[in-house]
Amino acid sequence: MSNNSETIKSEPVKIKREQIREAVVEIVSDSGEGAQKCGQSLGTISAKMGNGVWTVEIIPAEIRPPARSKAGASGIRVRMGSKKVTNMGDHADMVVALNEQVLYGRIDQNAYKPGTYLLIENKWATDTEESNAAYTESIQKFKALGYIIHEIPMEKECLKHVSDPRKGKNMWVLGLLCNIYDRDLNIAAAQVKAIFSKKSDDIIQSNIDLLHAGYAYANDNLPMHFTIASKVSKEDFVVMNGNEAVSLGVMAAGIEVCSMYPITPATSASHAMAEKMESAGGLIHQAEDEIAAIGFAIGASYAGQTAVTITSGPGIALKTEFIGLAVMAEVPLVIVDVQRGGPSTGLPTKVEQGDLLAVLYGAAGDAPKIVLAPSTIEECFHYIILARKLAESFRTPVFVLTDANLATGVQPFPRPKIKSAWFPDPIDQSKWEEGVKAYDWDPKTGLSKRPIPGQKGGMYTLTGLAHDEESHVAYDPSINQRAAESRSRKLAALHKTLKEPKILGDKSGDLLLVGWGSTRGAIEEAVERARERGAKVSSLHLHFLSPMEPGLKSIFKNFKKVMTVEINYSDTIGNSLITEENRRYAQLAWYLRAQTLTDIDCFSNVYGQPLSPIQILEMLEKKLDLTLTE
């Protein structure tokens, strides 16, 4: 234990629970110590108790970063509340750290506040002379920042039950947090059994023992105990992350082929599918590279069964030529892009919304395609079903843009009730109607019926070259013009079926915030908090990005100022070289300015972190000249 008298001692106390509406908890450690599994379990337990939950993983850039280092922080943030939770929240209320050095990176990211509880493994106080000095210095710094520190002998306590505390400390911490936040110990034990279901009975029992030991330690030694009201719904809920939702959406859509190459943060979607896809009548093909993956998917789709390929930004770059082929040949295809930081290899484990313009325009020539952006984990499931339907109806690739925040975040949502309408019709093998061409473009909609290989009389040559209605190579310039118009007209036809986006707040005011993707929860919570303080601010969230949802220009006219909120790069006015003339805008802002000819501002960053409501509120304070934060 530290000898500093200011540190709160762990003494037996009588439990008195404080009722709270929500809590934001982080578990941080070196890689391989199971912090993420601990937090995922805490989130799942809370969701099963009827609490709102959102989790965000803290993943280092390196696979094996140096131990006890600022760069090596690995862990998770869990926000649990009495109501629905849609984002990671503001500052953490409590942090469990398996060493003190991993806290520095989080402090630099403004994750904590004065009054945040730090529960720190105290073995480093006596481990070595070097670690003792670093530990003592850190404790002093943390106290100076206003954190409330509890030094806890985690390893010593775990050694009472296991010989290697690295293989058990996370479950001991889970028990500790279950006591602090009044989590149901029976649900927690069931969760531990589920985690280790493929292990031996002895391993399962030792981890349950650790869970109970951590619970008992908090009961006897910690003075802070809380309870978060929960409301168990009569409706059946499921708990999962966005990649799991995507994988289940693939199967619910009746898609039988997923071809992909492993890439962070998309890979876990294939892991989830690998356990169930075969039993659902499908297969996962792991190709030798990203190019081969989309080529395989296009081949499967051409054969009549629309396929999906799942990737991230660098994979999209490699798939670009094949995406153009699917557009030109009008082959239905679903492409899931789990966005991460870029460019190039960029930030593989960090969140960014940097691929919007790449998927819209990253192809040779004019290559229109449909682009969807789910904003919740539940939408990650349903948008795959929608994407498959649109791909087949419009004979085009359909992008589904998620990101690392959605991919790894855990959230409960109502269990989907399977509908037969989700599944594709049987492959049409009836005789092809005589006189109908392979690309018999409707002059109004640009749509055409798709021949399926094997249909008698429906044979045609598929080509990536410019072609006419019969798929003959186009040498006449007017044919290429007509074909390009037909492919573009399909988006206009889809646009006619869309509804105007809903506005959160008043339909006119001082400021309208516009978002897309995983920023929705943070934006809407910030707007609601700002409106409670008298701000005339509203928001809308876009789900269709190509074609764009209708009515935007007329909506924008009702606000004095319109601003996008995004997680991608934009220049900030203030640098001596940046002017209104040369400023580079965030990607949705750039796109909306072109589409609506409206002077749209933007607020964005590329810190690689999900946006928090407090960040948006602080921005609103400056824009509206109001005091919105406490």
TrEMBL record:
Top-rank taxon: Bacteria
Domain (Pyruvate flavodoxin/ferredoxin oxidoreductase pyrimidine binding) ranges: 249-476
GO molecular function, one term: oxidoreductase activity, acting on the aldehyde or oxo group of donors
Residue ranges occupied by any Pyruvate/ketoisovalerate oxidoreductase catalytic domain in the UniProt entry: 32-216
Occurrences of domain Pyruvate:ferredoxin oxidoreductase core (ranges): 510-581
UniProt keyword annotation of Oxidoreductase present: yes
Keywords: Oxidoreductase
One GO term of the biological process aspect: response to oxidative stress
Entries under PANTHER family matching the protein: 2-OXOGLUTARATE OXIDOREDUCTASE SUBUNIT KORA (PTHR32154:SF20), PYRUVATE-FLAVODOXIN OXIDOREDUCTASE-RELATED (PTHR32154)
Protein name: 2-oxoglutarate ferredoxin oxidoreductase subunit alpha
Organism: Marivirga sericea
The organism's taxonomic lineage, starting at the top: Bacteria, Pseudomonadati, Bacteroidota, Cytophagia, Cytophagales
